[in-house]
Design goal:
about 675 residues; alpha/beta; TIM Barrel; Rossmann fold; FAD/NAD(P)-binding domain; eight-stranded parallel beta barrel; five-stranded parallel β-sheet; about 30% helix; globular
């Protein structure tokens, strides 16, 4: 086994009483299987695949130590011998694959979405529906005892350790910060009093769970909210936690109510490793860094520069369970890279659905979406090498089908070639790289620059049409003007626009185009941090200072016919980021717009009954898509088995998550 390329990442970590096989921690993720019927069987397959793939230490999604700590009324709880027995299927599965696993204990505090919420003080969070009740001293002691009992039960369940969720603004964090702790007793007031709760928790857990049990503490090192902790306070707490018995300190970045992006694709890779580094010489226990680390090389660079002792990655293990073993075998090009989109993982979970992964729909469906060897190795043609065509072709070839892939363009990737040119979406090129590699490995025969005709497809057993979409032309008088350009032509041909631009259509594509048109000329990590008001010294509370509004060099109007909020884009967990960026750059957001005509004066519109003329140099059309599919009817007349997938089937708003899942599901059942 060749581990020369990533010697720091793949080095074992001695914890004294046990050893981790490498420096990779799979960060906690809630999958939705924790509460599902027969969910533990599926969850054990999910974790076993990651242990088999070489992860050093897995951390589960969060389980509450008691009823009041549940995030939702029906959220997972871990507080009984029965729960411990149920979890054995998970720990056994991981241990059989040579892995180690820790149970995350998470008390939601004021983030609980039920009327039984409790916190340090009765202060409702900006993202919650319920005002919590302030915990009595008795309740505090009982909660500490509940954490300790859950840790002891975790040991009985076969877990190698627990992670105490002390960041992201959950209960432990709520005690630490003035923002949410207005108490006047021994649990509030001074910083020494406010950190008594996490220290008492760790001491109680260590006492009950024993000396040879991993305790990870997820410490909020950068709160990114007003009245958060300063660096001096974070260092003080870290030292006290080490004394209290913590084995590993994991980094937490930002409360859930923070108005700063921390994990979305717009966040630069490894954007917060400097935070962990600030504690490096302050404590003697291993430090884990996290957030937007998605390749072995980025991880290796962090460890080799001594910014941290371990790397936490969560979503990259949804994208590819074999991330570590591929790094060990010097096969980094074979890794299905996480693009940080959130569309199939966090967006799904926040909608109460099961998590998965846009680039790997088998994630969390390991027992259901299985690519078994085909009994009949039929000859299959795939028309269109966009995301749907690529996903189907490689999945079908993996099953043993003889697959030919055709595309009229000279390159593969379809709409992803446009997406990767949007600032903050550069990661999409990694998916094209991965699929290109899979085409080679699975033996798909690729013909590019050829618009295949129906007659050429007669000899195939199955034909899959995945020809994608083209921009829809809205019915506006004057739309044929030279001022008007569609989004595909704009991005593909890198057309230079004037200083005043109107964007018609405020869906995901309109938001992306407006972002691209207002992007600063130079955007490195320091300027990105400054743009979001992040204080790298963490001398200001929460690591925030008031930032300058970044106005764009170009004036842009983003419009939609529908009344209401404009500029959020489709992402449930990322929409606010898009809107905030556009607002900071001075983009005028207009809803309830009627488009009257386009002429020399510009774009004539009516907004809330008031006519306006926008004196613009250019108008970009982002007003939806139509299918470019024309083959399927001809093929049906020729009695060819034909399947239409992706944008060819449903044009609408581009949804890569849907089209890739649909493609793999079709390949699995053929």
């Amino acid at each position: 086994m060749d581990d020369k390329s990533y010697p720091h990442l793949l080095a074992p970590l001695d914890l004294g009483f046990t050893e981790l096989r490498n420096r990779v921690l799979m960060g906690s993720m809630h999958t939705g299987l924790e509460e599902a019927r027969d969910g533990f069987k599926k969850l054990s397959a999910f974790y076993a695949a990651r242990a088999r793939g070489g992860v050093g230490l897995i951390v589960t999604g969060g389980f509450s130590p008691n009823f009041r700590g549940r995030l939702h009324p029906l959220s997972a709880q871990f507080s009984s011998a029965r729960a411990a027995r149920a979890h054995r299927v998970i720990t056994d599965a991981v241990h059989e694959e040579g892995g180690k696993i820790a149970l995350q204990l998470l008390h939601a505090g004021r983030y609980a979405m039920h009327p039984f919420a409790v916190s340090a003080s009765a202060i409702r969070s900006p993202i919650s529906k319920f005002t919590p009740r302030a915990m009595s001293s008795r309740q505090i002691h009982k909660t500490i005892e509940a954490f300790a009992k859950s840790a002891e039960l975790a040991r009985e369940a076969g877990y190698d350790g627990v992670e105490l969720m002390g960041s992201e603004g959950y209960l432990i964090n709520q005690f630490i910060c003035k923002r949410s702790n207005h108490r006047y007793d021994e649990w509030g007031g001074s910083y020494e009093n406010r950190i008594r709760f996490p220290i008492a928790l760790v001491e109680a857990v260590r006492k009950r769970a024993g000396r040879d049990f991993i305790i990870i503490f997820r410490l909020s090192m950068l709160d990114l909210v007003e009245q958060g902790s300063t660096l001096e306070e974070v260092v003080k707490l870290a030292k006290e936690l080490e004394k209290a018995g913590v084995t590993i300190l994991n980094t937490g970045i930002g409360w859930h109510e923070a108005r700063v992006p921390t994990i979305a694709t717009q966040v630069p890779r490894a954007a917060f490793t400097w935070v962990t580094e600030k504690l490096k010489n302050e404590v003697n226990i291993p430090l884990v860094t996290t957030n937007r680390i998605n390749t072995p090389q980025v991880a290796e660079d962090i460890l080799s520069s001594d910014q941290a002792d371990m790397i936490s990655m969560a979503r990259p293990f949804l994208a590819d369970p074999e991330f570590v073993v591929k790094a060990e075998q010097d096969r980094a090009d074979d890794i299905n890279t996480c693009i940080g989109c959130n569309q199939a993982c966090l967006d799904q979970v926040f909608a109460g659905k099961r998590a998965s992964c846009l680039v790997n729909p088998q994630a969390c469906y390991e027992t259901e979406l299985v690519l078994t060897p085909a009994a009949n190795k039929r000859k299959v043609a795939v028309v269109g090498a966009g995301p749907a065509g690529l996903a189907f072709a490689t999945a079908a070839a993996e099953r043993g089908f003889d697959v030919d892939l055709f595309d009229k363009n000279e390159y593969v990737g379809g709409q992803f070639n446009l997406a990767m040119q949007i600032p903050g979406k550069e990661e999409f090129k990694e998916t094209i790289r991965y699929f290109t590699r899979r085409l080679e490995q699975t033996g798909v025969k690729v013909t590019l620059g050829h618009a295949v005709e129906a007659d050429e497809l007669k000899g195939y057993d199955e034909v899959v049409v995945a020809t994608g979409v083209k921009p829809r032309l809205p019915n506006i008088p004057g739309v044929e003007s030279d001022k008007v350009i569609d989004y595909q032509t704009l991005i593909r041909d890198k057309v230079q626009l004037g200083q005043k631009v109107a964007v018609i259509g405020a869906g995901g594509i309109g938001v992306d185009v407006s972002t691209m048109l207002t992007e600063p000329d130079h955007q490195d990590l320091d300027s990105w941090l400054k743009d979001w008001g992040i204080d790298k010294t963490i001398e200001h509370a929460g690591g925030l200072y008031p930032y300058e509004q970044h106005m764009s060099h170009r004036q842009v109007w983003l419009m939609q016919r529908k009344p209401g909020k404009v500029g959020k884009g489709p992402g449930r967990t990322t929409g606010w980021i898009h809107r905030r960026v556009l607002e900071k750059r001075g983009v005028e957001l207009l809803g309830g717009v009627s488009y009257d005509k386009i002429d020399e004066q510009g774009l004539h519109i009516t907004v809330e009954g008031q006519p306006r003329i926008l004196d613009v140099d250019n108008i970009v059309l982002c007003s939806g898509q139509t299918s470019v599919e024309q083959l399927s009817d001809d093929l049906k007349h020729m009695n060819v088995n034909v399947h239409v997938i992706g944008g060819a089937e449903i044009a609408g708003e581009v949804d890569a998550n849907r089209v890739i899942r649909e493609a793999v599901e079709l390949a699995a059942k053929l």
